[in-house]
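Example record

One chain of 212 residues, shown exactly as stored in the release files.
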Amino acid sequence: MKHIRSHHAAPLAVLVAAALAAVSPGAQARNVRLMESVPDTAAKTRVHEILGDLVMQFGAASAQGASLVRRNVVVKGVGETRLHDVGDDDKVRPADHDLCARAFEDAVTQFAFAARGANATAILGVISNYEGNVFDDPTHYECHVGALKAAVTLRGQLAVGAVVTPVASPPQPVVPVISPPPQPTVPVISPPPADAPPPAPTFQPLPPRPNN
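Predicted structure tokens for this chain:
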């Protein structure tokens, strides 16, 4: 039987071989650990849109005192290199921070689905939990980047209602109350009564002059 050879098989094989050749054994083992900013990542992704009215707080302490409906929910987000990342400038792969942002958005998406499925209103106490290693920080998450993709593993508590611990204000310095210095006493001189006799003269009359 004569085999029919596809015209697309050879080009596809060439592309796959070229891609595998571009990724060296050293690059395949690449595992860069990054600590990414939660606010900065949220600002350049669709995280706020994905969460909607859900409250999300990082740091294990943010779950203290909350009414939990599901405990220790673990999500694993992956940020992959996409087809449209290859452009005219021979760009094959996004920057590490961009891959971490994609992985973070994927993890938050999974958290949002889990929270809405449990009728939760908040995702609290979120920490990084990559391969069981805990990284607890209220403003950063841990991201691991390989040759073509990044991974973010988060663990959090699903709660009803958000418990926000108020930040204690620093004690205000005690300002001493300084009394004004005593004013000099000004003697008050009362006027003499209207019908009082005139005061005695305080001068002596001159003696009479002798006649020449």
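Notes: The helical segments are 9-22, 25-28, 38-43, 47-51, 96-117.
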